[in-house]
Amino acid sequence: MRRVFLVMTACCFLASPVFAAGGAVDLYAAYGEVVDSEYDLGLGIRLSLGGTHWMVDAAFTGYKTIENTDITDLNPEQDDNIKYRAFDLGLRYLFYDGGHKLRPYLGAGATYASASASSLSMDGGLGMYGMAGLRWGTTPGIQFMAELMYRYTEITARANLINEFDMKIGGFGLQVGVSFVF
Predict the structure, then answer these.
(1) Which domains does the chain have, with CATH numbers?
(2) How many CA atoms lie within 13 A of 125 on its CB side?
(3) Which secondary-structure segment (H or E) carries 124?
(4) What would the 3-class secondary structure string for 51-91 be?
(5) H or E segment at 131?
(6) CA 156 from chain center: how many Å?
(7) What would the pLDDT profile of 90-99 be if each residue is shown by its tens digit?
(8) Which pTM was predicted?
């Protein structure tokens, strides 16, 4: 986990010439797939720095605990509770300039998934994400945002020392919130 924050910090410093033009802080609610078609609610925060069109994004999204989900065929009688956290680092392109009230955008990048379960031991893993969204509002000022996101990460889980398997974490989701653009 420390390595992820170190990499995010290093990328922010390396991209510092881009930061002079502006940025945004997004606070959002998320509804997305956590594991095996199990969807749940979450909250997130994103810091975006950049220019008129290109932005560097660093985000954290945490989902509620999904209870009583059947995630493994190794022990079908036992359901599990899963916690999922996503750390994202990527680039986003905003169409139009800051003078438009409605600005669509596309973004992509790397994601680090941290998951834990009550009866499984899980490793974190690196994956990727992609998003498409809209912002509405004045620049600078408060804007509203809505976006579709897809995250994909494979992590290793262990039921015991012998039974180890890979599982997919993440999937499609919707994020809606407020942006404070500076």
Answers:
(1) 2-181 (2.40.160.20)
(2) 20
(3) none
(4) CCCEEEEEEEEEEEEEEEECCCCCCCCCCEEEEEEEEEEEE
(5) strand 125-137
(6) 19
(7) 999 999 887 7
(8) 0.81
